[in-house]
Structures are given as structure tokens and as C-alpha cells.
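WARN  no MSA supplied for this record, continuing single-sequence
INFO  ligand: heme C
INFO  echoing inputs
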Amino acid sequence: MRYCSVLLVSLFVLAGCSREPDAPAAPASQIQGSLNQVMRGILYPNSNIIFDAQDRDPGGEADPNDPTASAHVFYQPTYGGWEAVENASIALYEAANLIQVPRKCANGNDAPLNDPTYQKGLAALRDVSMQAYQAAQAKDMDAMLEVSDRLTQACATCHDVFRDKVVDGRPVGIEGRC
Ligand code: HEC
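INFO  complex generated
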């Protein structure tokens, strides 16, 4: 009995010690980009590297005349090929951290950080980024196909509600409801 209670106490202490400190909020002076600029500058180019790996083998021969072959051409010969897909996956995962700190939308409103749909989109972005990372490490194009589909859904989780103008159930442009 005595042994049990000692164990319980030490478990409790352990749990107490392993609690992570709250992340400090980024000072306002360190925020330069609107949510829209972060999307266009980081999420858009990196997701395209992942989408590209659905139907073009990042490990294959690069065609320097094809301007859309992002993973092939942009970063050869330094961080190209499948490594570009790995790096894009990590960039998207880290981008989730950037879009959960307070910043303005293009229209001047605060980004809707606490909205449950926004939170859901963030969680989906994190999950699928790591799935993309694993698929890139495995150099698995079938998995990239599935991951791309899930990535599109993660983006749409937020965009359906906060961004896109929808007519007859289909996005037809940017409405800016952020
Ligand atoms: C957590 C929510 C969320 C997720 C996840 C998200 N976005 Fe966004 N995105 C937004 C919001 C909100 C805006 C509008 C921002 C504004 O008006 O300042 C936006 C705007 C954009 C824009 C700018 C549109 C324009 O031209 O005005 C692009 C591009 C974009 N997102 C790409 C992506 C891609 C690609 C993904 C997925 C890899 C993604 N976003 C995931 C919330 C999200």
C-alpha cells in the first residue's frame, strides 16, 4: 500500500514536471505579413511542390523547359528532387505555427485564430504535412496522390468558410470573408 502511494506521488510529480511552458506570444513588432501574404508566400508555393509530385516523379529527369515542374527544376541541383518535397512538407508544417499567431487579414480584420473551423484547418494542415513528409521520404508517388487530396481538403477547410466566394456549391473566386 505504502509503495503504491509513493508511486502515485512520483507519477504526479513527473506529470507536473513534464508540462510544457506556454509558448510566448510573438511581439507585434515581429509580425510583418498579413495572413494573405503568408498564404501566398509560403503555403502556396510549397503546396504546389507537393501537388507536383502526384504525376511527375521528383526523382526523375528534370525538364528545364517545363516552367511548371516545381520540384524538378526550381531547386536543382541543391535541394531538388524528393528532398524538395520533404522540405516543402516541413515548410507547410511550420507554416501552421506562423498562421496561428495573431496577425491581420488583408482586409484589416484580426485573423480568426480562435474559430473552431480555423483550428480544425490548422490541425488538418499539420497532420497532412507529416503524411506528405513520410511519403516523400519513402519516395512513394501513390502516397503523394492521396496526400495531395488530403492537403486540398485541409486548405479548403478554412477557405470554404473564410475565403472563397461560392456559387452553386463551387468556389468561383476570392471573396475575402476573413
Ligand atoms: C487555418 C486556416 C487556413 C488553412 C489551413 C489554409 N488557409 Fe489559405 N487562407 C486562409 C484565409 C483566412 C485566407 C484569407 C486571408 C486574408 O484575406 O488575409 C487564406 C488565403 C489564401 C491565399 C490567398 C488568396 C488570394 O489570392 O487572395 C492562398 C494562395 C492560400 N490561402 C493558400 C493556401 C493553401 C495552398 C493552403 C493549404 C496548403 C492553405 N491556404 C491553407 C486560411 C487558411
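The longest helix spans residues 116-137.
INFO  checksum written, moving to next record
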